[in-house]
Amino acid sequence: MESDFRERCYLERQSVFTVKRMLVVISVATIFLSACTAEEGVTVNNAWVRPTAQGDNGAVYFVLHNHSAADELVGASSNVAESVEIHESSMAEGTDVMQMNQVFSVALDRGSEVAFEPGGLHVMLVNVSRELSVGENVDVTLHFKNHADIPVNVSVAEFEPTGEEHSH
Ligand SMILES: [Cu+2]
């Protein structure tokens, strides 16, 4: 009898513990879900390009954040350039010379943040059709493997814009 009672107590305590654990799991899941629903898909922040003379090339910088399933940036287009390419700057091996290579896909893992910044990845506006002056904005559209095209309003500025939400 006595051992029966003890066993029942133990089982009850176990189930209370399990319920408590489930509640913790549910509330944690709710926090994650609400964080995810705030932003979905791919977001683009702090897009800028330095002032560029007509006929020159302009490097566009921004920060990509992928809130959804793994994707890839596969290209870009713009009405102010003859063509638009994805480039990555790097130091030529064994030298201190910066070189640019064309990139045809940039992986965007789920939850990843990829910075396009001076000295690294950038979207190159090749042979811009008109002068790009400080204070104006130009339209650049990003193309993804899965995600719909994202139109980006790129501000022409000497330096990276600050004040917007941004983390490295
Ligand atoms: Cu380039």
The topology string of helices and strands comes to HEEEEEEEEEE
Mean pLDDT: 85
Principal-axes shape call? globular
CATH secondary-structure class of the largest domain: Mainly Beta
What ligands does this structure carry?
copper (II) ion
Helix count from the secondary structure assignment: 1
How many domains? The number is 2
CATH architecture of the largest domain: Sandwich
- Largest sheet descriptor: 10 strands, mixed
The CATH H-level homologous superfamily of the largest domain? PCu(A)C copper chaperone
Poorly predicted runs are none
Short account of what is shown:
This protein has 168 residues and is α+β, with helices and mostly antiparallel strands.
Structural features:
168 residues; alpha+beta; Immunoglobulin-like; 2 domains; ten-stranded mixed β-sheet; binds copper (II) ion
What does this structure look like?
The N and C termini lie far apart (64 Å). The chain folds into 2 domains: 1-38; 42-156, PCu(A)C copper chaperone (Immunoglobulin-like). The model has no long low-confidence stretch (mean pLDDT 85). Strands 1, 2, 3, 4, 5, 6, 7, 8, 9 and 10 form a 10-stranded mixed β-sheet that branches. It has one helix spanning 2-38, and strands spanning 42-49, 58-66, 71-78, 81-91, 98-103, 106-108, 113-116, 121-128, 137-144, 150-156. With 168 residues, it is of the alpha+beta class. Bound molecules: copper (II) ion. Copper (II) ion (CU) is lined by residues 59, 87, 100, 122, 124.
